[in-house]
Amino acid sequence: MASAPSSLCQVCVVLFLASSLGRCSVEQMTWKQDAVIKNAIFHRDLLFTMTDRLSAIDCGRRCSQTENCVSFTFTRHSSSRGACRGHSSSLTSQTPSSTEPGTEAYSFVGKKVWLDPAEQQLQSDWVRKKCATDLDCPADNATCFRNMVCLCLPGYYYSHKGDNCVPECSPADLQTGFMDYPSGLLNSHVLHYVPSGVSLLHCQRYCTRDAVCRAITFVRSSGMCMTHHVTPLDADDVHVCWFPDMTPHFYSQLTCA
Ligand SMILES: *[C@@H]1O[C@H](CO)[C@@H](O)[C@H](O)[C@H]1NC(C)=O
């Protein structure tokens, strides 16, 4: 099993879009799960309690919409529901008021405004989660990619609507966000090729501005960019070559509505 590069190791960090700031920019809040605080409930500086939250991400979204909210706990009650408690102070220095199994604590890390929708993060509980087997990735047509990280089976599109992976996506439903697959290279069916010097953002833009583009191959070290109008599911001769070790290449596919 290959070890994950640090960019994939951020299992403790929940990223999501807090709000859309117009068509071409998004605000992204970053929360970090506290590795030490487990199953603890706090009463001090409690701003709100909500018992109908879908996930920790949903809870974080609520906290980010609440003035002064800097930390929260999420207690999972069922596979799709849980209790969310927002606080106006850090939880790390506090003594818990009670314990409740299944509770995770999160604190605010930072806020970032992206100026391009190609940087869209996926709002999902399972995407990019660390995993050991496919069972850790509970969504249709999802896989534990390289026994490391939950992604869609290569060739499938991540569907924002279903929070699962679908084999087809109509051109009207293609989104500007991508799902990245480390150490992959699709070296045929190239629409547009730039040998070096391209930034990831520009490579993604070549794709999102081209109505028939579906995926890119990008090499971080050199800035090589290829865009593709096919995915590995479209034809028998479309293959992503997966390198055994971590390389700076990656295959990245557009997501779907
Ligand atoms: C999963 O993939 C199969 C086979 O391609 C497809 O029939 C099924 O509809 C997919 N699931 C979803 C939710 O699209």
From TrEMBL:
Residues 88-99 have a biased composition (Low complexity). Residues 1-24 form the signal peptide. The keyword Signal applies. Residues 169-256 form the Apple domain. Pfam families: PAN_1. Keywords: Signal. The keyword Manganese does not apply. Residues 78-103 are annotated as: Disordered. This is Apple domain-containing protein.
